[in-house]
Amino acid sequence: MGPGGRWVRAAHTALSAALTLGLLLHRTDLQKQEERGELLQPLIFVLLVLCSILLYFKVSLMDPGFVKPEEEVKAGEDKEQGVVIPQLPGDIKLRRCGYCLVKQPMRAKHCQQCQHCVRRYDHHCPWLENCVGERNHPLFIVYLSVQLVVLLWGGQVAWSGLYFEQSREWLQHNIFLLVSFLLIFIFTIVVLLLLVSHLYLISCNTTTWEFMSHHRISYLRHSELENPFDQGIILNLWRFFCSRHLTAWENIYFHKNTEPV
Question: Which of 6, 11, 78, 105 lies at a C-alpha separation of 20 to 30 Å from 162?
Fold first, then answer.
């Protein structure tokens, strides 16, 4: 973890903690419930914030699906990690990455920031300071969902503490809640757009990189199908959220492209 990643993660944690503490200390619905001794909703809100922070660190720090050199991928290591590396038929050849010199599975891409090839590469997230790939993409969706709930609830709480008057004194008393509401509103739009776009791409079994660079990716450009990995919404969602093993995308690709029309 580089110094840049530490600063980004520290900023995320500090911002989340500051907004949460401010919403609890100002005259909002949560503070009124605390004063009445109704602690259930404030406790659930704090626990949701903590859950979102823990998910953020989990997704940010976990292996997104780095492709390891062949000599480092041993059967014993795979069993220890609970990971099954997909086996390919002998006639399917993997191309070698020009940067890290590993054999690159289909749908993998080398990330210049992480200096690794990543399986089913989606994108490099600057807010996570990590790639989103085959191993951490499902948890990334869970994180976005929890974060969206926290932001929507936080926006409602911030709004509940605002009362509007045209005076300098009003601005002094409400500046924190006003800034908090504006920040939460912006973050909510960003997270909502991210979540909706990712769910759409997942339902089609494509990635952000493949969607944006379809014309430049050789295995998509030379395919007879628009999306050779699409197996229907139900199977796409099941494979994404429920499959516990890495997928040999070459098998799906060549099977789809050799089916009779």
Answer: 11
